[in-house]
Amino acid sequence: MEAARGVWRERYAGARVLFLGGSVVRGEATPASDLDLVVVYEELPNAYREAFVHAGWPVETFVHDPETLERFFESDRLRGVPALMSMVGEGLEVPGASEFSARLKRRAAELLEAGPPPWDDEELTLRRYRLTDWLDDMKSPRSPEELVATGAWLYQDAAEFYFRARGLWSAHSKTIPRRLRRTDAAFAEKFFSAFDALFKEKRPEPAAALVAEMLEPFGGLLFDGFRMDAPRKVE
User: Fold this and answer.
1) How does DSSP classify residue 62?
2) What count of other Cβ atoms lies within 10 Å of the Cβ of residue 175?
3) How far is CA 22 from the centre of its chain?
4) Structure pTM?
5) SS3 content of the chain, % helix, strand, coil (to 5)
């Protein structure tokens, strides 16, 4: 918090509030963790993001005003990953709480509670096809390296399907394990075990079986008969 206050004083003194979020606030920081700060001014010509070092801390800031913050909230909502709204919702306020910061926190909480928009049938069909395609690519890889590269895409896509097909907020990259464990600890261990076999032992069968099981309630694997039309030509 003292480092965050220093950032506010020295770099963003005109801002109405800074929200300190991320692993430091959750008590999950490592020696390599940075300070994640959402900086909100009364008004800005444009939002921006920057990174720098302050007092030995690597710092990442996401600089907004209420209008741009709402726009980025909506972007996060549509892609199903509540990164920015989570930082505002859980963030500690610098230099302190105010009605301005409380209003932003209430908005973040409303959106988090409402959840992401549900996938429609077209999106669900596309995701089933894409997961099936990854599994097909793993059946006869040309090399172990190619298997791992395909598995890396499958890991992200499979986790996203698990969350979004159930109407839940999704996760990205390093946040996937944490969100999976919080959602369903038993499934999370099954997921990690399957991908450990893929990445460490180069055995794709457990991951393929896991994905097939995940897809079963939604129509199963999909290749034969898949079709998706491109948008019409613009006259």
Assistant:
1) E
2) 15
3) 13
4) 0.91
5) 55, 10, 30
Within 13 Å of residue 160, how many CA atoms lie on the same side as its CB? 20
The label of the residue with tokens 């990259």 reads 173
What string of pLDDT tens digits covers the 235 residues of the chain? Answer: 999 999 999 999 999 999 999 877 877 777 777 899 999 999 999 999 999 999 999 999 999 999 999 999 999 999 999 999 999 999 999 999 999 999 999 999 999 999 999 999 999 999 999 999 999 999 999 999 999 999 999 999 999 999 999 999 999 999 999 999 999 999 999 999 999 999 999 999 999 999 999 999 999 999 999 999 998 887 6
Q: Whose structure tokens read 């920081």?
A: 29
Structure tokens at 29: 């920081």
Q: Which of 164, 183, 17, 138 is nearest to 88 (CA)?
A: 17
Structural domains in the chain, sorted by start: 2-114 (3.30.460.10), 121-218 (no CATH)
